[in-house]
Write a structure and sequence with these properties.
Keywords: Membrane, Transmembrane, Transmembrane helix
Pfam families: MatC_N (PF07158)
Strand content: under 5%
Number of domains: 2
Protein name: C4-dicarboxylate ABC transporter
Structural class: mainly alpha
Distance between the termini: 37 Å
Organism: Epidermidibacterium keratini
Order of helices and strands: HHHHHHHHHHHHEEHHHHHHHHHHH
Shape: globular
InterPro entries: MatC_N
Amino acid sequence: MDLDLIAIAILVVLFAAAAIRDVHLGVVTLPAAFGVGIWLAKISLDEIFAGFPVSILILLVGVTYFFGIAQVNGTIDRLVEAALRKVGNRAVLIPLVFFGLTMGISAMGSPLAGLVTAPVAMPLAKRFKIDPMLMALAVGCGLSAGGFAPTSLFGIVTYGTARDADIPMSAITLFLIALVVNLMLFAVAFFMFGGPKLLRQKGDFADDIERTTPSFTTSYAGGTGRPKGERYEPEEDGKPVRTIADETPDNKLSGIHWLTVGFMVLLIALVVVLSLMGKEPDIGVLCFALAAVLAFIRPADGKAAIGKIDWSTAMLVGGIITYVSVLQAMGAVDTLGEYAAKVGAPIVAAFVICLIGGLVSAFASTTGILAALVPLAIPLVAAENIPGWAIISALGVCSSIVDVSPFSTVGATLTATTPADQRERVTHLLTRWGLSMIVIGPVLLVFGLVWPSSL
């Protein structure tokens, strides 16, 4: 067996072994990259270090630090509760609102942060007689869409890795593709799981949110105890429930909240405007700059937000991409290109790699799969006229929409927060939905995006 194929086989074994033993994949692949590079590839330490994705890590750390401050200072808490109150008694809007809320939170650095809405969304589905499967998919699709924002990890890893491989790609285009696909899936779920009947259903949603939901401040920002300004009133069973008085100043946006919101808007505006001008804004550096201002204003928030930085994902991406850079130096990518050429039809090869991405991601880390497969899809870009942005976007979205499977973190959280009397049904349906996406995703993305864009 050729040395490059041995190196690829080692990566596959590492993925499997880390999953079975529940070991952090980044911790495993980083030393393996140096071992394979030195002993098999015969390349120097300097060359291996050059493959370490410094630019992507700056993005990851900068984005998660900035939005970590927004969590710690309570800005996200205020925005979420304000959005929930706007729903009023329109039950049909509840799934859509949770789609939007989850997407917005997932876009703020870490896609899995969007799961904070699940413990609120799933019990409310029962309270308002909404099919819990519809609510689960509203959260799952919102998380997948928001995860591909230019400020979130799926998007950062996908377009960052593509750019490092010299594949021109717009972060905005990637996000829009993910948003459209997930809106389509959410629309299908809406009609499959009782959405139309909600048009005739009413419920006092705003009052329910104010009286019975757990504090977003304590659950999402990681604090403990009662937020300042809350009042507790007894119910008939004597148990205290949370009551938020609209006149309480702590419910309103203070100066630091308005400043943080303004910085969020400024960040989005800079990314969009600079992208339209043909520039490549460094989102990580922008986030560090904005976070530094907030940290100087309130140093305690800046210190607390250090713990919000997603160091685990930074390690994961760093290890995998360094290993993949060694594979590239060994010529493994060229070898895969030769195999892709033998397939005969690049579209078939694109379908297969998207299928593999979805299949593995249903049981493993989506971020890890993106970091590993995006560079290995380069040979397909070189084959005939397949646009790089199209195949990379298809691969990314196909690897994400399967995450509602109960075998993944997202799906497991959704089933765990479903009321007990519906949990078995939701688990069964999410399994069928998630596994069906392994095939539906490649069909939809390859033949609906990649193939038309290559004509």
